[in-house]
């Protein structure tokens, strides 16, 4: 029997079955892919943009301040030149008068006229000296002088204003140094070593600069806070101190020198303490190193996440007086990357300023090398300082 020739077709039923299975597998693989990678990339890009915006803002502020300083310097130099020329002209006239012969002297000014001329010269020289001192102050001096890695620095962008000024000083353990390891090491050292830690000395000098910048008409109160809140001067809770009382002001500035940082950070309790002042403060300064790691009425030491620290910060933010300006001095701590942006944003919204100085700001340039013991009693250290688990 003759074999029947079969026609060969490319798209047979079997081929279509195979292709359908293949396309189905591709769709299934695509559906189970973890799309969280996109979210991570977006979060990373958002954080980078925040840091860029912060740097641009600080550059803009410094450029504006530099232009203002240059303008004032030019005006002062012009005034100094004019006064010098006037003084030289008056001195020349006086010299010519003294060389007049007797016949010309009869026509010369009287002794009273010469005395009056001398008085004018003295006054103009005094004005010239004052302008020169002011010019040197603009170019070289600063409200807070110190020797650091960058030489003489200037605290810029902040004006200490307000009739009632409240200061909140963070004295938690993390104020000792910038890294977790260094804080651990310092807590095993003697108190004298802890008091000399560069970061803590910068915080102390910042507070003393603020206190030293008050006018005699200013009323102030200074609080220190960690797990709890207290006034830097004893028995002055809920009351205003007067800057014109110089011995009392110096005592407050000296008291901070004896405090050793320890414990956690409860910013909300610190801000609530300001509500008891009467009248309410119209200017607030905060000296800290990062977001709070404890909530209101919390005495337990525990690890906290980034999201929890942000919630604690938001809770404290709601307690600030509405009409008070807010100024922040931030001494950054390792791992707390969101603190700079959040405190800067809050300061801008409250009509204040933001400063993030370097580690040895206001201190001698001393490079400390703390010995961190691996077998340190971490359990006891954790009890004195609640360490964020994200650091």
Shape estimate: elongated
The first-to-last residue Cα distance is 87 Å
Could you say which structural class the secondary elements and strand pairing correspond to?
alpha/beta
CATH topology of the largest domain, which one?
A: Rossmann fold
CATH class of the largest domain: Alpha Beta
List the total number of helices.
12
Multimeric organization: single chain
Quick tags:
49% helix, 7 strands, Rossmann fold, alpha/beta, seven-stranded mixed sheet, 2 domains, elongated
Describe this structure in words.
This protein has 12 helices and 7 strands. The protein is of the alpha/beta class and 391 residues long. It folds into 2 domains: 90 residues; 221 residues, 3-Layer(aba) Sandwich (Rossmann fold), CATH 3.40.50.410. Strands 1, 2, 3, 4, 5, 6 and 7 form a 7-stranded mixed beta sheet that branches. Helix 2 runs antiparallel to helix 4. The termini are far apart. The C terminus is likely disordered.
Topology:
Elements lengths: L12 H19 L4 H63 L3 H6 L3 H29 L24 E7 L9 H8 L3 H5 L2 H15 L6 E7 L3 E3 L9 E2 L3 H10 L11 H7 L9 E6 L17 H12 L7 E6 L7 H12 L4 E2 L22 H7 L7
Helix pairs in contact: 2-4, 9-10
């Amino acid at each position: 029997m003759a074999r029947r020739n079969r026609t060969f077709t490319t798209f047979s039923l079997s081929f279509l079955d195979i292709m359908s299975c293949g396309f189905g597998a591709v769709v299934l693989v695509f559906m189970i892919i973890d799309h969280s990678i996109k979210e991570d990339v977006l979060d990373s890009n958002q954080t980078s943009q925040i840091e860029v915006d912060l740097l641009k803002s600080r550059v803009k502020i410094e450029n504006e301040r530099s232009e203002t300083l240059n303008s004032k310097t030019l005006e002062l130099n012009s005034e100094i030149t004019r006064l010098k020329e006037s003084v030289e002209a008056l001195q020349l006239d006086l010299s010519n008068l003294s060389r007049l012969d007797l016949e010309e002297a009869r026509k010369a000014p009287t002794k009273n006229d010469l005395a009056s001329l001398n008085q004018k010269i003295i006054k103009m020289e005094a004005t010239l000296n004052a302008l020169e001192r002011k010019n040197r102050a603009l170019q070289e001096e600063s409200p807070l002088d110190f020797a650091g890695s960058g030489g003489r620095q200037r605290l810029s962008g902040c004006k200490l204003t307000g009739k009632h000024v409240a200061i909140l000083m963070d004295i938690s353990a993390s104020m000792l140094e910038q890294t977790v390891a260094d804080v651990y090491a310092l807590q095993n050292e003697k108190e004298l070593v802890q008091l000399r830690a560069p970061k803590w000395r910068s915080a102390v000098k910042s507070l003393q600069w603020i206190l030293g910048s008050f006018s005699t008409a200013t009323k102030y109160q200074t609080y220190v806070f960690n797990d709890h809140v207290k006034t830097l001067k004893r028995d002055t809770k809920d009351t205003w101190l007067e800057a014109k009382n110089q011995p009392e002001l110096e005592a407050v500035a000296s008291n901070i020198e004896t405090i050793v940082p320890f414990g956690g950070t409860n910013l909300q309790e610190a801000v609530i303490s300001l509500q008891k002042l009467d009248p309410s403060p119209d200017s607030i300064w905060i000296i800290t190193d990062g977001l709070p790691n404890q909530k209101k009425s919390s005495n337990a030491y525990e690890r906290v996440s980034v999201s929890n620290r942000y919630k604690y910060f938001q809770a404290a933010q709601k307690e600030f007086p509405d009409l008070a300006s807010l100024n922040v001095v931030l001494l950054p701590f390792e791992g707390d990357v969101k603190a700079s942006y959040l405190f800067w944003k809050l300061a801008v919204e409250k009509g204040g300023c933001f400063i993030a100085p370097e580690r040895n700001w206001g201190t001698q340039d001393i490079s400390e090398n703390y010995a961190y013991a691996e077998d340190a009693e971490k359990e006891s250290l954790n009890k004195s300082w609640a360490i964020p688990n994200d650091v």
